[in-house]
Structure formats: C-alpha cells, structure tokens
Amino acid sequence: MARRRNAASRNGTLQDAIALLVQNQAALVAQHTSFLTELRELAADSARRFATIEQELRQFEQIKAILLRHEQILNELPEAIRQRIGFKGP
Predict the structure, then answer these.
(1) How many whole angstroms separate alpha carbon 65 and alpha carbon 59?
(2) DSSP label of 87
(3) pLDDT for 26-59, tens place per residue?
C-alpha cells in the first residue's frame, strides 16, 4: 500500500512538473511573440527613418550642386565685370 501511495505521489509530482513546464513554455512563447512584434515595429520604423534620410541626402546633394555652381559664378564675376566695362590691366 505504501508503495502505491508513493508511486501516486510521484505521478502527481510529475504531472505538476509537466503542468509547470507547459505554463513556462506558454509564457516563453508569449514573450517571444511580443518581442518579435516589437522588433518588426522597430524595423519598420527604422526603414521609414532611413528612407527619409536618403531623401534628405538627395536634396542636400542637389543643394550642394547649386551652391557649387553659384560659387563658380561668383568666382568668375570679377573677371566678367572687368571685361564688360572694358578694363584693361597694366
């Protein structure tokens, strides 16, 4: 009789351990799912930000090209004025 009670007790303990394992696995899956959702949201946000940065970079490149052209015009301006007014150097 004592053996049967002992075996039943062990079976109960084993069932409790299995139940705890299943609960822990369910909690882990829930945490993993939550983490993956957050990770996907972060990746989508990063992709949006990166696209914005790339667009701004293209705009800055256009502005840079315009400024370089203006710099060239300003550098050539004194000589253009000299030629226009007919100034002759020494």
Answers:
(1) 10
(2) -
(3) 999 999 999 999 999 999 999 999 999 999 999 9
* C-alpha Rg value of the chain to the nearest Å: 38
CA distance 52 to 10: 62
The CA angle 61-66-67, to the nearest 5 degrees, is 95
User: What are the φ/ψ torsions at residue 89 (nearest 5 degrees)?
Assistant: -70, 170
The H-assigned helical ranges of 1-90 are 2-85
- Please, which residues have CB within 8 angstroms of residue 58's CB and are 6 or more apart in sequence? none
Residue 72: pLDDT above 60? yes
Pick left, alpha or beta for residue 86 (phi over 0 → left; psi -120 to 50 → alpha; otherwise beta): left
Confidence of residue 6 (pLDDT cuts 50, 70, 90): low
- pLDDT for res 22: 97
